[in-house]
Specification:
The protein is mostly helical and about 350 residues long. Helices cover about 60% and strands about 5% of the residues. The protein has a three-stranded mixed sheet with strand order 1-3-2. A hairpin with an 8-residue loop joins strand 2 and strand 3.
């Protein structure tokens, strides 16, 4: 028999129920993804029409991508946006920046580049000393056809770099895993465990947070953020489709290119990663986790009233390590306001 990357519906249902602690199956997950994709597409089209009446959002995105850095400057562009995101996180009191935390930049090693069209984040290792993470950026391949190299440049445009740095570094994955490490000093199991629903949900949540707190100001970035939202909701549809046998690799690439306006280079790299990932449902975790964190925040805000602050909520949220959001919610909603985890 031929090998397949499809995990099967039973396996996906088991992961949703037992690993993510969610009360839904793959049918409900796909319906959730389709509904969110439709809503995100409508919002993208509405915003695009308001920004440039009569100009399709795909054309607007294409024009934004025309403004991209030289290939040799990829690393420095992302470094600059990382530093801007850190300044905003501190200035807006979005979360505590612990002493000693740092994120360094480097190029993705050559053997990893085929499945990483843009970048990959390596957060601070849980059982090593220090609070240092590394953000690896994929360089342009001088051996690739010129058309493919240009596609990669366009996907690394200045606006995309600005739209993603918060998700990856501040107050996203790097800062969350720094808090995770500090919060789990008394529990080796909690330090080891990492729920993608929490981790990726937090990363996606920070993109909305940056718009909410005024970091994303330009219409270009706000349009790109809405395009990125359709990308994440399309992931849910694709995740279920490719792992339950309802969607081919080619269909998944075409859907991602159509719904998120990705050039072929990035769309193929994304789908390759989804197919070979060791955790089906991982790609759905971004949106599922974000929705869960937003719901919890509103519950806490309603409970605390005028005493509620984003910074204290985020610090409390991250004080439980990286366990599923439903378990964090149980702890927060049954504890005294303002208290965090004890390990």
């Amino acid at each position: 028999p031929h090998a397949t990357w499809a995990a099967g519906s039973d396996h996906m249902d088991g992961l949703l129920r037992e690993f993510h602690l969610l009360d839904l199956d793959h049918h409900q997950l796909q319906e959730f993804g389709r509904e969110r994709l439709e809503a995100d597409r409508a919002e993208l089209e509405r915003f695009a029409e308001q920004r440039r009446p009569g100009v399709h959002w795909l054309e607007q995105i294409a024009r934004i991508k025309d403004h991209h850095p030289p290939r040799e400057d990829f690393l420095e562009v992302y470094r600059h946006e990382m530093e801007r995101a850190r300044v905003h996180t501190a200035a807006a009191n979005l979360a505590t920046l612990p002493d000693g935390e740092v994120c360094r930049m480097a190029w993705v090693p050559e053997f990893m580049r085929s499945g990483l069209p843009i970048a990959v984040m390596h957060t601070t290792p849980p059982f090593e000393s220090g609070l240092e993470s590394e953000w690896w950026i994929t360089p342009s391949d001088p051996r690739a056809p010129e058309e493919r190299r240009l596609q990669q440049q366009r996907d690394n445009c200045y606006v995309f770099a600005e739209s993603i740095a918060g998700h990856e570094i501040y107050p996203g994955h790097h800062l969350q895993k720094v808090h995770h490490k500090l919060a789990t000093a008394g529990s080796r199991m909690r330090r080891y465990f990492s729920s993608p629903l929490f981790v990726e949900g937090w990363g996606l949540y920070t993109e909305d947070l940056f718009e909410e707190t005024g970091f994303f100001e330009s219409a270009d970035v706000l349009l790109f953020k809405r395009r990125n939202s359709t990308w994440r909701s399309a992931r849910v549809v694709i995740d279920v489709g490719i792992h339950t046998g309802g969607m081919t690799h080619g269909e998944a690439v075409e859907l991602l290119a159509r719904e998120a306006g990705m050039d072929l280079h990035m769309a193929e790299g994304e789908i390759n990663r989804y197919c070979r990932h060791d955790n089906p449902t991982y790609q759905s975790s971004y949106l599922l986790g974000k929705v869960a964190i937003q719901a919890l925040r509103e519950q806490v805000r309603a409970r605390e009233g005028d005493a509620f602050t984003l910074g204290s909520f985020h610090d409390r949220l991250m004080s439980y390590g990286s366990i599923p959001v439903s378990l964090v919610a149980e702890q927060i909603l049954h504890s005294k306001p303002g208290t965090g985890a004890t390990t």
